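A common beginner's mistake is to predict each chain separately and then try to dock the pieces by hand. The better habit, illustrated here, is to supply every component at once so that their relative placement is modeled jointly.
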Amino acid sequence: MDIIYLIKIGEIILKLGNRREFEDRLRYDLKRRLSGIPARIEISVGRYFLHTGEEHAPAVELILSRTPGVNGFAKAFKREKNMDEIAAAAVLAAREASDGGASSFKVESRRSDKSFPLDSYAISAAVGEIILEKVPALRVDVRNPDVVINVEIRDKAFIYGRVQVGQKGLPVGVSGKGLLLLSGGIDSPVAGWMMAKRGLSIEALYFHAYPYTSDEALGKVKRLAELVADYAGEVKLHVASFTEVQLAIKKRADESRTTLYMRGAMMRVAHRVAAMSGAHSIITGESLGQVASQTAENLRFTGSFTDLAILRPLVGIDKEDTIRMAKAIGTYETSILPFEDCCVLFSPRHPILKAVLDEERKAYDAMELDPLLDETILSMLTFRYGF
Amino acid sequence: MPNIYLDWASTAPPHIDILETALRAAAADPANPSSIHAGGKSARAVFEKARDGLAACLGTEPCKVFFTSGGSEADAIPILALLRRRRAGSIVLSAIEHPAAFEQALVLERFGWKVRIVKPGPNGILDPGALVQAVEQDTELVICMAVNNETGAIQPVARLAEALSGIAGKRPRLVCDAVQALGKIPFDPERLGVDCASFSAHKIGGPRGIGALYSRTPIESLMVGGGQERGVRPGTENLQGAVGFALASARSVNGLEESRLRARDLMERLLVGIRSISGALAMPPSRSPCDDRFSPWLASLSFPGLAAETTVRLMSDSGYFLSAGSACSSGKKERRVLDAMGIPEELSLASVRVSIGPATTTDEIDGALAAFDEIYHRYKT
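With all components supplied together, the output reads:
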């Protein structure tokens, strides 16, 4: 346990009413993610400290960088509260930053232990002077420094330089559970990640239409669930076989309505799976106008199959921005694997763009799909990823 | 459930006895055929005997046969050799080439070469006149395969060679990918009048990792190294591969007439059977069950309303192995060859390739037809 990470938490501070619950959640979440790694978490005066061994630093940093609710974190030196030790550690942190390419710095100090003889200003001045002397490659820039060397005087002195950015947002679970409609595409994993950052724990539902979609496509979705679990901590993936439903729709519905009704049927299954798994919301990767089934009218139609909140975090996001996010969270390369089939054979040539709710619901109901949907739910398989 | 192999055009199950003989030959002469000691000379003799054998199958002289790592490399050598020219010129490329030739030829564009692409007719057969018409003063190569690997369409290579000889000015070289021809239909590069032709051993039951390039005149290859294969293809000689290739080509060429007639019967049975499956059709639709314009070893079949990948998957589940288009292009959505023929997307994306071999039986064809019928009716969308 020779190193300490100082973890900065963000919105938790704002939500004073629930603060205790949020703190407990984050601590619990971090503990589960860190299982198998010798590490200890300590909360003191609004600060999280994580003690671990140097050899575990890469694994710990990866976890901290992916945990919602963590704003940022810094590898800190813990020292006795005397200026010699503090200055020596500050020089180490400054040297690390300089080696990493920084050429300017400033020192910021905070003193929650008011018995310490120097005030914040005096600590910064003294430490800054020593850094200038010992690390000549660094110059002072108080307005726009490459690195801020922080000194915090608490029960001990904590000194750290570079702060690594975290996911921010809320700890997973504080907002309850959401059921993510996960496909093999680019959008839905990003949507899942975004909602995990808003404090939802995630279960996912994938509609598999073998033989029209391949087992490789299912493998890809499993991998995506695993990647979302890197952020959400844990993802339970339900796989529902949709082949018979799709064939029935193809047979019973007007060609221009097949995709619309299929999405309606998916939403109906999702509603029931959500109820079974205790989810209070359904998450989709839909973006307004991206494809024919995602017009406002058609979203209203699919939305009519559930009274749960439908969360569409990408609804106003441009595709290229979604792609940028998918690349940043590491799902893009998997999403673009070429296991999607030639959907041209299944999708209508001229899909309906503006569904009139009452009419389409009537036509949908006339297909009497419910027995097939029951079978779909009964034969569902579940896989678990993360932790 | 027995697995029935109907993907011979991707690769043929190897003749085990040939692989064994080739391995023993290479083990008995382990020295490098380019070494000048007695061991090397002995290995060289075995290697050259293999070249003699392959040359005899091709009806040519051994000095015109160069071993390569496979068909793709043999396709690439004459194309890439153009990059040694001081000035970029042009090439004429058929739109239905195997990617090994097609994609390689397109690379030349990045070096300032003009590539003129010529499409076939709706039957997948190129018109020699159209290819010759695309030739200009600076044209160095005309690239046209012998047998198309997706449709089986036999290309009029001899007529093309003749037409090229008739043009005024410098005659461009005719480069011919004959990977689906060797041992499957009569193919004699000298008689046909091609300048280069490429071959692959594993398509006829030989080992993988060995192919050959026939070149009527010397080639100054882009790739250099130890000077093996008279500088055309540097790299330590693949003795085991060469011996295996020579044996496999001898076996397939010697038995060609008999096996081709058998294949013709089987293909007729398949194509007649397909006609009885409502909605299914051969690609191109103009191919008749006994159509000598096509190789009897492979056929493209379309099941409109069922994606090619889905058909392949379902047939695989039923124990029949075939390809969606060529195996090399599986996973890609475009169907370049069928597109070039003007086949509509609902047919091209639903097309699979069935390819047979000397070991294919009538029972296997009948079984495949029954499976196609069942699958198509159950899953057609």
